[in-house]
Amino acid sequence: MMRTRPLKVALLGCGVVGSEVARIMTTHADDLAARIGAPVELAGVAVRRPDRVREGIDPALVTTDATALVKRGDLDIVVEVIGGIEPARTLITTAFEHGASVVSANKALLAQDGAALHAAAEEHGKDLYYEAAVAGAIPLIRPLRESLAGDKVNRVLGIVNGTTNFILDKMDTTGAGYQEALDEATALGYAEADPTADVEGFDAAAKAAILAGIAFHTRVRLDDVHREGMTEVTAADFASAKEMGCTIKLLAICERAGDGASVTARVHPAMIPLGHPLASVRGAYNAVFVESDASGQLMFYGPGAGGAPTASAVLGDLVAVGRNRVGGTTGPGESAYAALPVSSMGEVVTRYHISLDVADKPGVLAQVATVFAEHGVSIDTVRQQGKDGEASLVVVTHRASDAALGGTVEALRKLDTVRGVASIMRVEGE
Amino acid sequence: MMRTRPLKVALLGCGVVGSEVARIMTTHADDLAARIGAPVELAGVAVRRPDRVREGIDPALVTTDATALVKRGDLDIVVEVIGGIEPARTLITTAFEHGASVVSANKALLAQDGAALHAAAEEHGKDLYYEAAVAGAIPLIRPLRESLAGDKVNRVLGIVNGTTNFILDKMDTTGAGYQEALDEATALGYAEADPTADVEGFDAAAKAAILAGIAFHTRVRLDDVHREGMTEVTAADFASAKEMGCTIKLLAICERAGDGASVTARVHPAMIPLGHPLASVRGAYNAVFVESDASGQLMFYGPGAGGAPTASAVLGDLVAVGRNRVGGTTGPGESAYAALPVSSMGEVVTRYHISLDVADKPGVLAQVATVFAEHGVSIDTVRQQGKDGEASLVVVTHRASDAALGGTVEALRKLDTVRGVASIMRVEGE
To answer: Does the CA dihedral A322-A323-A327-A329 come out positive or negative?
Structure first.
């Protein structure tokens, strides 16, 4: 049943991921052909620096004119691994207009303009697949879109950024501070020269937006995601976490809020119990925990980045889109029918671990406890520690809204006896 | 874009899984309709005992004549959750002949007759989906068939039977013997009254056959799977495992053999290092570890059985097949193009932990070591322990073929100084 006319594939970008995609397309050509039902042919590669040597790629295929490439009109599939918003967005929509389906690894673009891109794909009857945009090689988009399509997902809780997990794991296991761990991550190539997108949570927030959208059949944009980075996590926080039987991870959390009539999405560092499967995710690995009505708790684990793993996800999509082309059909498009409102961070309900520096004199605990009570935040445990005339209070709360906790902290700061709020960290995964 | 004519679904079997499928089809009808693009209608339910009360199911839909039901000719999808070979096999092929696609949870049937069923589906241009047949709710078939379609899978290593994992976990954590742990599993409903299919590894072997077939694009039948149960695992084995920094799991292992020109599939108890992600899979949970060229190591974790989780997998397939019907297409069928030979157990290469009861006199170790050397099995470590005039030798080997190890053990048994071979266990996951 093999079709002989090859599927023509254009590659936009030929960096770490793109070159690996091109390599596997060549070395595994027979396998891909058998799985798709038609041979695949690399029809063009758009790059910024054409003079760079690209092993195994016919120089005649290389061009700097990506726009002309996607306008050729004879392409079946465009693989976009440039990243960033422009020119990727225009190139993808142009590809649809000129008859190609698209496989993308572009989380930032999908998180910002997913709805418009899906609409463009649907308008032209083409596929838009992007398994590689979230958690690298880990099959996650397809299981959420398809395997769990008959279930109701209530929560997605994941480690979706390998750089920050490497740093936090290093801090946890060696007692290193943030800067020292970041330096090691940079030296080993786990962190980029400018690590902002990772350590400030932008990368994870884009993935959270994509995951929330798919999990809840609702459009969630990057701007809807509450984002806190992990640059202020300290060795002292890890010591506190250990005392609680926890570790600290940068988590992306998407969940139904309140009675399920709205959704929230957020990224922030959080304490998580050592017994939780996410606590033992080491190094630069990613893992995503999915909780749903019928299937209970599922976890997906694997390498979250890297050329080869990301290429594996791209090629899985390439096979699926290729099969669809051969069969004259398209796969599932955007599913946003539920259209739930996205609630603000203030409505998120969770537990909190708060460290306060306080005056070491009688009555302080009573004052502090009163402030919590006035804001409706119930205290689970309090621990007092004296140190050199000063004292610290560690308060762990029961579940409370972020708004209530925020009000509590604001009021605590106004107390004369509270010298400072040393840290506030959410406690998740219980 | 909603189609108004509903998709007609027939349910074969209405036990723990079937009743949950029916329940979710009713309670989540709107969600399913939105995700499929057409409403779904329960058109008939075939059962053995029609007098049993079935909450929420219109008694007019219930029939004992499954054959007449699948022959109706107006069905879109038949969901088979009867299990076993017949009448399930005939009902499924009859369903294809009369125009329906099929969603099945039947691992035994798929492992035995998957090729014939796929051929029947293809002949009639229908879908055959069976995500629920392996590892319950865990999305595994679809990720392997689709997400990893652009990658080369080298090994699948999994805990795919919840009953045996519950028993082994109990033995590990409480020091209980096999019978005691089995009794508790039975009392808690994790083991059936006749636990043979689980504890003798038949259930896991069927799943191994299905996984190997999909992972290696090769037909692998139940008979091709080497199978050893876990009824002979003892508390002493767990003690030995602990000394090695390991625990014991019943593993399904599918891997490329030798130079990758053949495949093997096997189920047996094995020691696995505590640091391996599979070692911490507790209770009745399942987890499957997949190693591939590009994506490295992936793990899929979740509940491996139970009505609701299995129903979630069935409904995910129902949505996919329903979408295909609405779109007038079918999903990927059998992929067996690689057609690799299946090697016998003798060609499997792994490490071994062997406990010998030996005479406590000089020269025994030299004798034993000579036998290993003569069979080309290289020893990693030996530990001697004296006990009451007798002694035990614990030998851990380097990697060797199962055939070489078998020859070694046969020769050891003939030594006068070897009183008995107390246990042989493979060491995996390193």
So the answer is: negative
* Backbone phi and psi for residue B279, each to the nearest 5 degrees, phi listed first: -65, -30
| Pairing mode of beta strands A400-401, A349-359 | antiparallel
* Residue A14 is assigned to a ligand binding site: yes
Any chain B CB within 8 A of the CB of A29? no
Cβ atoms within 10 A of the Cβ of A291, count? 15
**pLDDT band of B2, cuts 50, 70, 90:** low
Q: How far from the centroid of its chain's Cα atoms is residue A261's Cα?
A: 23
CB spacing of B313 vs A297 below 8 angstroms: no
ipTM of the complex: 0.87
Q: Is B152 a catalytic residue?
A: no
pLDDT > 80? residue B387: no
Chain A closest-CA separation from residue B296 CA (Å): 7
Q: Are strands A296-303 and A262-273 parallel, antiparallel or unpaired?
A: unpaired
* B413-422 average pLDDT score: 93
Other CB atoms within a 10 A radius of the CB of residue B50 amount to 14
Q: What is the pLDDT of residues A230-246, one digit of tens each?
A: 999 999 999 999 998 99
- What three-state secondary structure class fits A10? strand
Does A107 appear as a known binding residue? Answer: yes
Residue B422 DSSP one-character state: E
Instruction: For residue A405, give Cα distances in angstroms to A28, A352, A396, A410.
Output: 55, 8, 11, 9
CA A393 to chain centre: 34
- State pLDDT tens for residues A276-308: 889 989 999 999 999 999 889 999 999 988 889
Q: Return the DSSP state at B105.
A: -
Domains defined along chain B, listed by start: 7-137+307-327 (3.40.50.720), 147-303 (3.30.360.10), 348-427 (3.30.70.260)
**Could you tell me if B246 lies within 8 Å of chain A, comparing CB atoms?**
no
Q: Is A55 annotated as a binding residue?
A: no
